[in-house]
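This section describes the prediction task in plain terms. A model, or a person checking by hand, is given the sequence of a single protein chain and must write out its three-dimensional structure as a string of tokens. No templates, partner chains or ligands are provided. The sample shown here is typical of the held-out split.
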Amino acid sequence: MPAAKKAVKKSARKSARPRKRTPAKAGGSRKLSTAHKRALAEGRTMSATVDRYLTAVNTPKRRGRKVSKAALQQRLDAARTRAKTAAGVDKVLASQEVRDLQARIASVDSSGSGDLKSLESAFVKIAKRFGENRGIGYGAWRDAGVPAVVLKRAGVARTRG
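The expected answer:
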């Protein structure tokens, strides 16, 4: 086959293939501005603050008499002693009591009354702006369990609808 015909066939094959289209903007990936990144970070922080406060407000209160951490620790020591000396079913029951008391002591450590106050003060600082940004009204806050006094301190106006 002559060289001219080979060249024609090769060029015909190349042109038959679909061309890859390049984007109009060949600059690569788009970057967020510093202000946009800061706004996104602020939004995440505000959402986390509101979420922590609403979780704390809606956590059911423990009913009954308050038990001190020292009393729980004494009961735990006694249960550990029983678990070591007991046999059979008594040993299993004492072991379970040890686990229950350890969990209860851990929950007493993690939840304190001062904790709710700090969460509330952080919520009060951002609630109005967060609500305006997300379109959350007074009624929605109340339905979520936020007390009216807290909303008033935050400056959230009482509206209809």
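For orientation: The chain has seven helices and no strands.
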